[in-house]
Predict the structure.
Amino acid sequence: MALSTIGFDADDTLWHNERFFQLTQAHFAALLAEHAPSDHLAERLLAAERRNVGQYGFGVKGFTLSMIETAIEVSEGRVPAAVISEIIAAGREMLAHPIELLPKARAAIEALAGHYTLVLVTKGDLLDQERKLAQSGLGDLFDAVEIVSDKRAAVYRTVFTRHGSGPQHGLMVGNSLKSDVLPMIEAGGWGVHVPHEQTWALEHAEPPQNHPRFAELPDLGALPALIARIG
């Protein structure tokens, strides 16, 4: 069935994002070095993120709160206020970091704009995602923007029905198999995986090999040709 609507993930699909989380996590490990080795601290932080994502949501603010919680836990409540202050400052710095587009992102979107309905579908903090989109310079190329609390099949059905004729006429492209690909395929559409060299551990999933509506591309530069083949 002919495609009418193309959905794009944002973080680590159109612009770099995870690298800033990893840099901040390295700084966090240095701050807590006297309380826990870096590998153990990373495990505790990931556990906190997994535990908290349902309440705090995705993004920098939830990550910062999880770092503070982990610092208190591993130090048994002895973490100095100065360290908590540095963690908060690191979160603020992440929220102010300039946007750096991934290679071929703009060219791919420009090639598709005007031929399909383009929708940015991203999860995370509303204000931060709006800031990043504005700084990216890509906002005018999208027909719609959906900032959602999570990405599930039901969400994609709603989004692609609102901005098209349903997910069966839609394609979602992103770096996360768990969030961008598998639920879109479950909804009845195409899921296209464009791997990023750095992906959050909680986004890991196995690819649906040999599924007729699954494709994997080396970068966004190959997307227009794939869409042309699909129809």
